[in-house]
Amino acid sequence: MTTSLKQALKTHFGFDSFKSKLQEDVVKAVVRGDRDVFVCMPTGAGKSLCYQLPAVLAEGITLVISPLIALIRDQVDHLRDHNIPACSINSKLPAVERRLILADLGSSSPKLKLLYITPEMVASPSFQPCLTDLCSRSLLSHLAVDEAHCVSQWGHDFRPDYLKLGELRARLPGVPCLALTATAPKNVQEDIIQSLKLRLPLSFITPVFRNNLHYDVIFRELLPNPYVHLHAFIKKALMLDSGSNGQGCGIVYCRTREGCETVAYQLTKLGILSKAYHAGLKAGDRTEVQNEWMQGRVLVIVATISFGMGVDKANVRFVAHWNLAKSLTSYYQESGRAGRDGLPSSCRTYYSAKDKAQINFFICQDVNRRQRKRGSAKESDKAAITDFEAMVSFCEREGCRHATISKFFGDKTPNCAGACDFCSNPKVVQAQLARAAALRTNTLAAPSNTPKGPFGFQADLYEGGKKGYGFERYDEGGEGNEDDGTKRKKEFSDLFKKQMKLRKGSDSQGEDFIPPDADCPLREASSQKIPKLTVKAREHCLQLLQESLYGQQGAEDAFNYDSLSLAVDIEHEVFKNSKSSNLYKAAVLKKVTANFYVCLQQQRASYLKRKRIGAGQRGSSNPFITAKDLLKSSMLDTESNKEKESGRFFNDSSGDMKAKRERLKETNMDTSSAASSSIKARAKAVSASLDNPTKGGKAMSKKQQKLAEAAKSSRNISQYFTKKQTTEKIQEDADMPEELDATFSHTPSEIAQENISREQHSPASVEAVESSQDVIQAESKTAGTDDIKEKRDLSPPAKRSRPTDGHSRRVTFNPSVQERALHPVNVPPKPVMLKEAADIVVRYLDPFYKQGKFATKELFKSFARYLSHLLAEGRSRGKSQVKAEAKALIKKFFSSVQRCESEADWKHLKRPHSRKTTEKNK
Ligand SMILES: Nc1ncnc2c1ncn2[C@@H]1O[C@H](COP(=O)(O)OP(=O)(O)OP(=O)(O)O)[C@@H](O)[C@H]1O
Ligand SMILES: [Zn+2]
């Protein structure tokens, strides 16, 4: 049998041998066909072949149930490539094809070998006659259920239609059934066997323990420089110091796109060529990055979990998780991509308590949302939480990491023999835990309120209880009809009443502090450092902060992990530095206002950019109306007006530059006051909501109205900025160094003209702007935490005194006032952000690209991205300094490199000392 199977394997699939002994054993069992079979093997182990080869060899048809049409399509294509007759009946199938398939199935000897079908289709009435007919003629050779964990409510991908497969299986008593799943916890395995009604199945389960994988956990918050730590780990894992070739490659998993970009950048800066991979990249770029990694041209891929499905690379020497995985199941699968060749490999998690709080918060939120949608709680809701708890436990508990994993998956305790940090040196692990505990104690003022469970989880956390911190809470008071807003309003109504009582002094001082919920994302949430400041009030402030940050981050990233984590940081900083509840609220208000100011600025800038490249407006799914949205709609309203205005301005051939500048400044007065009134309106609204949270809903709509008004009065904002940019451009070009002047030798009026029409008239420039957009697209979505931190430190413009005389509101130009409005006195130069840096870099680099100094456009973009990061890194440098540095860096680069051929060319390029650079370029 073995020889004929191997021959068939070679003939039909082109493989010389089975992928593993287990694969071979499964195939043999399925071919025998006397028992049901249960297969639990890791992703990429070659499960599909376990039913595909027997299907080819059997008489009749193998019915394969698969959950997704996309997966089915891949499988069918793959089989057809090997000339194996396979097809699928699904809702998307054209009627003609469907008829052809049904005709073949109805014939006396169908040609088809594998029929793929979704669980929904197999249960549909239209398919029943066909199924009955095949059964009655004994034409079904096997029933294969792929991704069988979808049948289990404990699995994350639970699909109710999978439950119906049990009935199907019962209807086909003589047909052997095969259920396949990737590594699944014990309870999921049991669920599968039971729900699919498998009869005394032969189980083929890959042992969970893999002795070539070394697991360890590092507490990121204890590290002085986590990137340097990661870098050292990678160097060791890839044996980069030993100079050996063919050292393999690695994966760093990050939770967010921003994280990927930042880590990839930091690693590259430290000397290890790394590239980011995430859904924010264009499909082509993603494929390119994946190919480069597969071919070993890029050693490290820094990816979100979207990377790895179907990636089968043997020599992955390490998998590092920069953020905590969302479950132990996922972690096992993701880390399991290391060492497929059986050689020693490392799996490391960089654990952080902040990650834990955030993921926990989001999982609970998600569960909450699902329950509210469906109106009831389900066992399956707990799966995500318990699986995440297991992940946390893996990191926080003393003990063998391999044993923790094996136990979770229901395997026996393995003989680790030093293949994890605990088994190789328990003292180090214990010391780390002790340091982490000490850090926590230092930050928690009230130890009595800290979670009491062994891993920071309280045992009854998800069980409900009097305070309803668990599942019951989500079902409280028929919340099926109550939306988040209503609930929040109710909470704040209670809070408001309590605050009023406190103010009147009617509330006793000794009132119990209400501890934070389990999913409370606040830092030092249990601290009662500020008298009378409640957790709920802090949460409300946190939400306002997040909302204000949202405006800066763009719709796609709305309320993502990073905006929350930033908001948490800001809130905590304010909390730490405030002495009273009122001071705390005032400080939050200030930050919120500052954020909205930045948001307005960004909006103006990005509006101009979109306008320049002629891109359309992007829709926003934000449920809150922010200054951004209002500004956007206001801009749309006034677009034609503005165009007319700007057209008049730039086409005014009779006007000289001086007159233009004066008009520009005049406009600036209008717009800057409009901007500040918009900010004030927002601030007022926020203030109202802080003082009177009960009226959250009303306050919000008033807030919106006010913002709308403010935004309407800022009609000229974009105009002002268009014009301002023109003068900036003139100045920029005036101080261009000689070597770059040649490529930017335009007269000021040409530049002014070019500024509005360059894209329409100059394809080369379009490319430059597009490239800048690309750099920004990759960066802005991903604009790292640092970037946003810089933004949030910006203060709103100083209040300007207004003339009391209402008639003189339209101020005639006064140079000194104007100067102040543009550059507030005593304010250091505005730090340059990533987007601005990218603009500068692309602009200066574009001429070199056009001169063919880059082998590919990708290299040009990649270099621009690298430089932008490098330049945006510093905190205190202004735009002109960054420009000077950009020029110096580009000059330095091309002084040693004739033509950029590879990314290694700029590996050693570092930012020159800032002062030196400025002096050199003077
Ligand atoms: N005997 C074999 N020899 C070499 N390659 C094989 C063999 N069997 C399967 N493969 C290849 O291994 C890869 C993974 O196979 P497959 O997609 O079936 O894995 P899987 O276990 O089903 O993974 P998943 O859990 O993602 O569905 C495929 O590229 C497949 O062609
Ligand atoms: Zn161990």
Automatic annotation (TrEMBL):
PROSITE patterns: HELICASE_ATP_BIND_1 (PS51192), HELICASE_CTER (PS51194)
The enzyme's E.C. designation: 5.6.2.4
Species this protein is from: Amphiprion ocellaris
Protein name: ATP-dependent DNA helicase
Gene that this sequence comes from: RECQL5
Family as reported in the entry's similarity comment: Belongs to the helicase family. RecQ subfamily.
Cofactor section: Zn(2+)
Residue stretches of biased makeup (Basic and acidic residues): 655-668, 784-794
Pfam families: DEAD (PF00270), Helicase_C (PF00271), RecQ5 (PF06959), RecQ_Zn_bind (PF16124), SRI (PF08236)
InterPro entries: DEAD/DEAH_box_helicase_dom, DNA_helicase_ATP-dep_RecQ, Helicase_ATP-bd, Helicase_C-like, P-loop_NTPase, RECQ5, RecQ_Zn-bd, SRI
One GO CC annotation: chromosome
Region Disordered, annotated ranges: 636-714, 753-816, 902-922
Record GO biological process: cell division; DNA replication; double-strand break repair via homologous recombination; negative regulation of macromolecule metabolic process; negative regulation of nucleobase-containing compound metabolic process; regulation of DNA-templated transcription
PANTHER family from the UniProt entry: ATP-DEPENDENT DNA HELICASE Q5, DNA HELICASE RECQ FAMILY MEMBER
EC class: isomerase
Entry's localization field: Nucleus, Nucleoplasm
Biased segments, Low complexity type: 672-689
Biased composition, class Polar residues, residue ranges: 770-783
Catalytic activity: Couples ATP hydrolysis with the unwinding of duplex DNA by translocating in the 3'-5' direction; ATP + H2O = ADP + phosphate + H(+)
Keywords: ATP-binding, Cell cycle, Cell division, DNA damage, DNA repair, DNA replication, DNA-binding, Helicase, Hydrolase, Isomerase, Metal-binding, Nucleotide-binding, Nucleus, Phosphoprotein, Zinc
Domain Helicase ATP-binding: 28-202
